[in-house]
């Protein structure tokens, strides 16, 4: 725990890393200063893009002593403001699941190889990032913990499947290789409370190590302090649960 | 990308973006999370020219009611223009 007489320092910068198909993509890396070894986190950004909230969240994890990388999952859509790039991705029907998994796995490999990392790597995502994080934790061996915050479309009906999302993430649950923390708002429409129940049932069926928390008076994105969805009490409690969970499995 | 409800339509006209007017090629219509409007989902229209990059975009995010009213209004105005002989 931080004490006021402790030295603190963070280093944060844009860098490049190898993603899916060997593509070079950019990413944002923040780390606490010091020799370590530190645990590490990979952040899967949300549908609004590789934006300021994810910069802030990268800093937040680094402040909590996690070396943290946030790859630009929309790199291949071109460059502009995060909103303009995200709008292009939205119009194109999102990014392929396989590509997102490849980019997140690449981020895991990059960060694990850093000399000041303790070999433990977790993954965190919100909204579509929660879904991508779940896919990565199921399909890319090597993650030690996952935090899924209100990931939508983890439970998908057959008629929702597309060439970019050919398999419902729920169907990969048997392959989940690490403990999962899930945070959800009971007023969310994607995922609905019923879909969260389905997800929990699948985790239970396969004997997975999971911890789900559901919040009343909260909908989609209740951590987002820059949006009307923000719910102060639920967000404070949720962040406490995130760091308690990660401390249990990554330190 | 949470709803995945998105359609593209070719359009012909001009839009005024951050750096001035540009030729429009498509309108991308979606119902998904907005970037700015204080709602969980909105009807979003992005007037774009993809050949000029992601920044060639004029965006609106509307509530469902606003979007439906806008559609009716556009059709009503076109009907008036037609009745006035302006669409020839």
Provide a concise account of the structure shown.
Chain A has 251 residues and is an alpha/beta fold.
Provide structural commentary:
- The complex is a heterodimer of chains A (251) and B (88).
- Chain A has 251 residues and is of the alpha/beta class.
- Chain A has six helices and eight strands; from the N terminus they run E-E-E-H-E-H-H-E-H-E-E-H-E-H.
- Chain A has helices spanning 52-63, 82-91, 97-112, 128-139, 193-205, 232-250, and strands at 10-18, 24-32, 38-44, 67-71, 117-126, 145-149, 180-185, 210-215.
- Chain A has an eight-stranded mixed sheet, sandwiched between helices.
- In chain A, helix 3 (97-112) packs across helix 4.
- Chain A starts with 9 loop residues before the first strand and ends with a helix.
- The relative contact order of chain A is 0.13.
- The mean pLDDT of chain A is 97.
- Chain B has 88 residues and is an alpha+beta fold.
- In chain B, 23% of the residues lie in helices and 44% in strands.
- The relative contact order of chain B is 0.17.
- The chains are: A alpha/beta (251), B alpha+beta (88).
- The A-B interface holds A 47-48, 77-81, 83-91, 93-95, 127-128, 152-153, 160, 162, 165, 189-190, 219-221, 227-229 and B 1-4, 6, 8, 26, 28, 30, 32-33, 35, 38-41, 44, 46, 48, 50, 53-55, 57, 59.
């Amino acid at each position: 725990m931080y004490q006021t007489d402790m030295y603190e320092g963070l280093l944060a910068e844009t860098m490049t890393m190898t993603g899916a198909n060997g593509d070079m993509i950019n990413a944002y890396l923040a780390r606490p200063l010091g020799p370590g070894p530190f645990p590490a986190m990979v952040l899967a950004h949300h549908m609004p893009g590789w934006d300021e909230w994810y910069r802030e969240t990268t800093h937040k994890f680094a402040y909590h002593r996690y070396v943290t990388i946030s790859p630009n999952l929309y790199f291949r859509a071109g460059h502009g403001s995060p909103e303009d790039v995200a709008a292009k991705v939205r119009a194109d029907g999102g990014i392929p699941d396989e590509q997102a998994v490849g980019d997140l796995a690449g981020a895991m490999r990059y960060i694990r190889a850093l000399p000041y990392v303790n070999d433990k790597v977790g993954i965190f995502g919100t909204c579509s990032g929660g879904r991508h994080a779940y896919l990565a934790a199921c399909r890319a061996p090597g993650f030690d913990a996952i935090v899924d915050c209100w990931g939508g479309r983890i439970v998908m009906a057959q008629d929702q499947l597309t060439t970019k999302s050919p398999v419902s993430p729920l169907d990969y649950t048997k392959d989940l290789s690490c403990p999962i923390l899930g945070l959800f708002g009971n007023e969310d429409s994607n995922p609905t409370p019923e879909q969260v129940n389905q997800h929990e049932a699948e985790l239970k069926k396969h004997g997975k190590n999971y911890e789900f928390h559901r919040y009343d008076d909260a909908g989609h994105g209740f951590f987002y302090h820059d949006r009307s969805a923000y719910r102060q009490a639920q967000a404070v409690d949720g962040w406490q649960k995130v760091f308690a969970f990660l401390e249990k499995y990554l330190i | 990308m949470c709803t995945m409800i998105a359609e593209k339509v070719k359009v012909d006209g001009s839009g005024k973006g951050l750096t001035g007017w540009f030729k429009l090629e498509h309108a991308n219509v979606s119902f998904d999370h907005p970037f700015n409007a204080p709602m969980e989902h909105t009807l979003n229209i992005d007037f774009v020219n993809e050949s000029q990059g992601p920044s060639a975009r004029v965006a609106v995010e509307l509530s469902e009611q606003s979007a439906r009213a806008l559609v009716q209004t556009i059709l009503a105005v076109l009907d008036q223009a037609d009745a006035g002989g302006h669409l020839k």
